[in-house]
């Protein structure tokens, strides 16, 4: 199949209103996950346990009546959103916006971002399915275990530093996107004051937490301490140990909840 034929096939598939609705449902589930993570962060702030990451939020789903069904629905929604991002990576622009593609440097950046999000959402779908089948595992423990294996070799430590720098860059991009209000470009209509404020707070807070996780991965590689490379959960729990840690955690929870609310806005108004 040629590149043009692939694009034509993707165009036909993304014309389906049901496919678009399923992909938009992925934003709703993402929003719910962030609200649950925010709830877990508040619990940690007041001395309770929990994993402040996607696996912790999925575990909350799994423990509720009807949680197994909800997790399968979440998995399907994540797969749909992952496939939609894959379509954007192939087309080089928004799947339902003709002429939005760009073959320049900006266009290739958008393709790379879409492909990265595709991988992320497939990962979330896999995690949701595992929790639905009762075999879900804390992503923090998985990250720490993998980091411990990598730290046994010099090349592995270098790789961890590179991964940490990439995560830090992603966090910085989120903060930049929030502060500059570039996230409004993702919407089909202009954001009102509430939407704009929610997006600024949400993107900035999520970026800070992601960036903190990246810094901890670098520190873990340098100090050979795999427990520091446990992702977002480790970053949140590091905040808890700082002066005014409880206040910092509450602020982080507010920011993550704001991002979750903004995901609901995306489910309705995102350019697709």
From TrEMBL:
Keywords: Membrane, Transmembrane, Transmembrane helix
TM segment ranges: 25-46, 66-84, 114-133, 158-179, 200-224, 244-265
Pfam family, one: DUF1206
Source organism of the structure: Gordonia mangrovi
Domain DUF1206 residue range list: 25-91, 115-181, 201-269
Protein name: DUF1206 domain-containing protein
Top-rank taxon, per record: Bacteria
């Amino acid at each position: 199949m040629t590149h043009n034929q692939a694009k034509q096939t993707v165009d036909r598939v993304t014309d389906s209103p049901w496919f678009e609705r399923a992909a938009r449902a992925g934003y709703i589930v993402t929003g719910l996950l962030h609200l649950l993570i925010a709830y877990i962060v508040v619990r940690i702030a007041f001395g309770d346990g929990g994993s402040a990451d996607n696996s912790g939020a999925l575990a909350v789903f799994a423990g509720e009546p009807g949680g197994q069904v909800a997790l399968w629905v979440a998995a399907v929604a994540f797969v749909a959103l992952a496939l939609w991002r894959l379509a954007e990576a192939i087309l080089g622009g928004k799947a339902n916006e003709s002429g939005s593609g760009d073959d320049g440097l900006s266009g290739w950046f958008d393709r790379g971002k879409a492909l990265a999000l595709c991988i992320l959402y497939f990962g979330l779908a896999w995690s949701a399915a595992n929790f639905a089948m009762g075999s879900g595992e804390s992503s923090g423990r998985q990250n720490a275990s993998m980091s411990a294996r990598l730290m046994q070799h010099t090349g592995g430590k270098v790789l961890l530093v590179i991964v940490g720098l990439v995560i830090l860059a992603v966090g910085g991009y989120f903060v930049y996107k929030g502060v500059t209000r570039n996230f409004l470009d993702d919407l089909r209509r202009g954001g009102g004051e509430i939407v704009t404020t929610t997006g600024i707070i949400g993107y900035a807070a999520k970026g800070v937490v992601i960036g903190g996780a990246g810094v901890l991965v670098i520190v873990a590689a340098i100090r050979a301490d795999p427990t520091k490379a446990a992702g977002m959960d480790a970053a949140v729990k590091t905040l808890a140990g700082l002066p005014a840690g409880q206040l910092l955690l509450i602020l982080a929870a507010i920011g993550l909840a704001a991002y979750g609310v903004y995901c609901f806005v995306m489910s309705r108004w995102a350019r697709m």
